[in-house]
Amino acid sequence: MIEGAMHHFRGIGPVRLGQLHEAGIRTWQDVLQQQASISETLRAEVVQEAERCLEALEQDDIPFFVERLFPHDRWRILNRYIDRCSFFDIETTGLEYDDTITMVVCWHKDRLHTFIEHENLDDFLDLLDDVDLLVSFNGSTFDVPRVLDGFHIPELPCPHFDLRWPCYHKNLSGGLKQVTARLGIDRPDDLQDVDGSLAVVLWNRWLQQRDEAARQQLIRYCGADVMLLKPLSQVIGGHRIQLAEDFWDQLPASVEAPAAPSLDDRRRQFLTNVFGTASPTRLRTRR
User: Fold this and answer.
1) Global pTM?
2) What CATH number is given to the structural domain containing 239?
3) Quick check: is 77 in a domain?
């Protein structure tokens, strides 16, 4: 339960936290009810922080806990607010710092929302205004900075929870697909070998050739990663995984994906990203 989060209390380290537990003080309510059992040198600050936390809980102040709780206690946010989470992932034109967003997929209020560049990408900002807690995997490093830069906003209008580090503190290291596979949660068979490089190929096929199959498979790939976040959040938050039989039916139907790009394809794509249509080969032919 979230009321047991005390790692962030000033002056409370592992040893003192253990002493509080031995004295029967395990929650913020216990702090207020058993103040005499707390060392006088710590009592005032510990009581004050417990009161602040209880006030935030009463006011349903999710950002307070996202900003305040230490890594070892952040799983408690998911334990308390799992039903208020919206899960998201993005795709970009590549992995460089200046690559742009091509797609955002978000599971929000029991529905998969898709936002695509040149179509409705800006509508993602409207959805964010309705989000209570935005959840990603490694979003603090990758997704969120690109959202802020791509939409030219100083900060998200909602609190953000990155699952990567709570997973790490529960000995679940690696990428999203590795972590969920270890938990027995696998993507559909047709998406097992799809990765970020193929996602770039799918986007380019849609952008340049208007290949509807590529567009649909890209949405399916990104949406699958988004939907993996929900059962993973349930695990981290101490809930039972609710993986219904029709879990993957929320995704677009499977279509045959293009083959993974060869080294030559990747080289051509790299040159296209750097030089656009004025590739070195084409420029040489014009000299």
Assistant:
1) 0.84
2) 3.30.420.10
3) no
